[in-house]
Structures are given as C-alpha cells and as structure tokens.
Amino acid sequence: MNFLKQPDLGIFFARLGLGIMLLMHGIAKILNGIGFIKNLVLKQGLPEFVAYGVYVGEVVAPVLLILGIYTRVASAIVLATCAAILYLFYLPNGDLFTLSSHGGFKPEIVYLYISLGFCILLSGSGKYALKRD
C-alpha cells in the first residue's frame, strides 16, 4: 500500500484539525462568557438566546468531530456556526471579501473552517472514528 494514499487518515486529520481549532474557541467562551456574541446577536435584532448556540457550534460539534461520532451532523452544525459568524461579525462591517494587511481575506479562518466542514460533510467520518458513517 502506498503511504500517500490514505484517504481515511486524511479525513481523520481534517476532523482533528477542525475539531481542535473550534474547541479552543469554545473553551475560551466557557471561561470568559459570551457577552461579545450576545451583543452581536442583539445588534442584528435577534433574540438573546440565539447567542447560546455558540456552545453547540464551538463545543459540542467539535467534540463530536474529534471523536468521530455523528460527524456529518457535527460538520453541518459547524457550517451553520460559520454562516452565523459571517452574518453577525463580518457582513455588517462589509468584510466578507476585504483583504487584510497580510493579503488574505479578513475572515479567512472562517473560510478554512467552511472548507474543512464541507470536506467532512461529504466524506463522512472515515475509518478512524468511534461511530463510522
């Protein structure tokens, strides 16, 4: 077997990378609260309870991705979370396609999360998961 032809291992690392990166954001929200998110939600005229969805998108879904449980559902939640981030934070500022001083898009990390989310949504959990789909 060719070592470089390991799609299941690639999916595993995509799940780990996306899950760990998002979970770090979730842990920060657990430790510091979601006041910033509540303000963004209220500015858009949405009810305050919508802000608590950040815990699902940045704690629950990443843990599911890392473990490989309901990965397609978890990646759909991540995609919804990313859409909310773009809508609440970047769209009002007109920064969806604005370039940063370093040459990348200002929300490039969100676009990376979206790319990985679609890869996992379309590929499933792969072989290295607690519950393969």
From TrEMBL:
InterPro entries hit by this protein: DoxX (IPR032808), DoxX-like_oxidoreductase (IPR051907)
Keyword Acetylation tagged: no
Topology relative to the membrane: Multi-pass membrane protein
Entry-linked Pfam families: DoxX (PF07681)
Major subcellular location class: membrane
Protein's cellular compartments: Cell membrane
Keywords: Cell membrane, Membrane, Transmembrane, Transmembrane helix
PANTHER family: INNER MEMBRANE PROTEIN YPHA-RELATED, OXIDOREDUCTASE CATD-RELATED
Protein name per Swiss-Prot or TrEMBL: DoxX family protein
Organism: Campylobacter suis
